[in-house]
Write a structure and sequence with these properties.
Largest sheet: 2 strands, antiparallel
Strand order of the largest sheet: 1-3
Number of strands: 10
Shape: elongated
Length: 563
Amino acid sequence: MTVKTVRNLRRLSQALFLFIFFFLILKTTFEVSFNPTEAAEIRLPYPVSIALQFDPLVALATLLSSGTLYKGLLWSLVILIPTVFLGRFFCGWVCPLGTLNHWISEIRSERPRRKGTRLVDSNRYKKYQRIKYYILLVFIGGAALGVLQVGLLDPLSLLARSIGTVLLPMLHTASLDLLAWVKSIGFPPLGKIAQAGYNLLAAVLLPFRQAHFNTIFSLGLFFFIVLVLNRVFTRFWCRGICPLGAMLGIFSRFSLFGLEKDESSCDHCNKCLLFCQGADNPDVGSRWRQPECHLCLNCQAVCPRNSLKFKFFPDQTPTRANPAGTQKVDITRRKVTASVVGGLALFPLFRSGDDFEINADARLIRPPGALVEEEFLARCIRCGQCMRVCPNNALHPTLFESGTEGIWTPILIAKIGYCEPSCTLCGQVCPTGAIAELSLKEKVGDRDLPPNRIGTAFVDRGRCLPWAMATPCIVCEEWCPTSPKSIYLKDEIVLDGQGKEVSVKLPYVDANLCTGCGACEYACPVSDKAAIYITSVGESRSPSNQVLLKRKKIEKEATARKS
């Protein structure tokens, strides 16, 4: 098998794994309506989060931050163990974000001949490639104290989040707007063609419903910058930023498979540098940077004199003509220490502020089954899977509602959508166990088991139509899905603005029955700011965030002062 054949197989492998990843993101949705009369638990037909569970960086970081290894993350050994023997094959053959970076870097317009020299120079090893190792060490240092930020830059989490919450919603919105514009022209045959095209696109790429996500601009801008930088530096993200690539580079340092250079046949044409993806200095006379090599095999494939060969147990002994040999990971002890200390400093930096506990946002409503906030943040990798799968578009990325530490983690926004009582999908797709996989019984509850609560509803009597305006309205009670209903009505006679008596039903909330699903807030007819709203108080996951706990604490402190 020739090297060019191997290179073609690599390209096929890249396309295959990118397709599988994209397919799993597309299938992270539930494409039918829930039937409240059915008691059967709904489950997805595909293991949509398995690609994220193959991520060794996520496995290591969550192990450090939470002290446990979630069962699905054992799949990461499938990537990690071969890396020790083969090198960074994942970056060149498997990683879907690496594939996108590769393809975007390869898009070249017609350029003058002199740019070949510039491209050769850009593909030599540069000092900025150290940055990814320091980023990795910062994340590892933070994870050791329970601060998990690795999901911000982990390539698989980043791509899943960007496709699910940015690209697909943008595609859906653009398709609908284009279809509406074509139909507005008033030429029926053209409108039918556009409708047929939309139906075909919807069947392949678009979910059964249009989803919108909070903070989409920040997510989209970040992803756009990641991709565009590849037009400036070849695979800039992979070379200089990616913490997973840094981790795999460290593990590949002692790989048995490597590059052997034959200086006697090399004519220094630099074609190997012209097509190098990892900027690992494959040319004869330079230090080959094994931890940087993506195993793209381009250098061996384009070498006209067969001076470069990848093999097991290569001869990398420095010679007179090639004195450099191979190079270890290019990091210094001082900066390694500074990076780890910086990561450890994230804990007091994030947790010393009032926004973590005392002054937490009351509207910070996590998905059902979410762990206690501290444990939740120690596991959530911001992959966006729970947001994507939510059938009512209720889950969205935060910005700063959960403080700086919790950026882009999931939050329920009841004004946009509510938590479906019979849905347990978010726990099914969570790859790290930040959201526990609840059974339907654990979610809904029964006589012996209380339901899972994510918050409590409160009536704003100054905005409620029956309370404030003597206008009959029972929408919140009608929409309340609990059994028995947590929202109950009392008949009252009130005076309207003209002094006339009006019979209305005033809504009240039974906090013992309310699960905080948000259906009442979602359905409230007061459009700008709902007259009934959900806060996180009373959530099952927190023993301290309860309705009466603070009152009891105050009474206890007052009694202690009197005595």
